[in-house]
């Protein structure tokens, strides 16, 4: 699996910043987010470029590299990130084993490190829970200097479509709402796969229990 857990103080982070493709890798485009870099980065990874080569190409071909923040992970677990020298807020990135984190407008440079350390230390924890827990760890380490208002969870696995694509916008504590959405979605995960690949195997759903007045 490849996945991204992300939260920020601006709206629609799930639409603008995280990108992932099954059996290929994942890319994030942050700070003055250039949405074009996500699909372009995935195409580079699909063509066999490493995460490091992908980030370098994205920055080399960007019109405003000094304002961009980009990270990538490739199919071999290689990671890379870049933070532009003209980003005015505190910003940093940190790499770990099979993971990478970047942030800007953050309270201190150690926020991405805290996220990576949680992810690496969560042995035996399911993948999605690692991503959600990493968001919590980043917030506990200081998070952003502004209250976060949107959060997203994007995961790809074996199919060509996202296994999970959940988004929260303009909500106080969106990370808590994101976890609630995941807890509601997880029991239906297999159903959504089966209905695509083997629709004749889908079992009728039980009608909801009536609410007692």
Automatic annotation (TrEMBL):
<protein>
    <recommendedName>
        <fullName>Fimbrial assembly protein FimA</fullName>
    </recommendedName>
</protein>
<dbReference type="Pfam" id="PF06267">
    <property type="entry name" value="DUF1028"/>
</dbReference>
<dbReference type="InterPro" id="IPR029055">
    <property type="entry name" value="Ntn_hydrolases_N"/>
</dbReference>
<dbReference type="InterPro" id="IPR010430">
    <property type="entry name" value="DUF1028"/>
</dbReference>
């Amino acid at each position: 699996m490849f996945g991204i857990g992300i939260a920020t103080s601006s709206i629609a982070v799930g639409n603008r910043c995280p990108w992932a493709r099954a059996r290929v890798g994942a890319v994030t485009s942050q700070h003055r987010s250039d949405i074009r870099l996500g699909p372009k980065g995935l195409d580079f990874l699909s063509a066999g470029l490493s995460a490091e080569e992908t980030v370098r190409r994205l920055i080399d071909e960007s019109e405003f590299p000094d304002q961009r923040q980009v990270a990538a992970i490739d199919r071999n677990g290689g990671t890379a990130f870049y933070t532009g020298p003209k980003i005015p807020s505190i910003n940093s990135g940190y790499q770990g084993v099979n993971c990478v984190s970047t942030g800007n407008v953050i309270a201190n440079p150690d926020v991405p490190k805290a996220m990576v350390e949680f992810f690496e230390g969560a042995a035996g924890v399911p993948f999605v829970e690692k991503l959600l827990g990493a968001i919590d760890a980043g917030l506990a380490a200081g998070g952003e200097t502004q209250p976060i208002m949107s959060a997203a969870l994007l995961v790809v696995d074996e199919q060509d479509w996202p296994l999970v694509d959940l988004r929260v916008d303009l909500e106080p504590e969106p990370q808590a709402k994101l976890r609630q959405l995941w807890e509601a979605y997880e029991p239906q995960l297999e159903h959504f796969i089966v209905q695509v690949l083997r629709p004749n195997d889908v079992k009728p759903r039980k009608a909801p229990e009536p609410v007692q007045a």
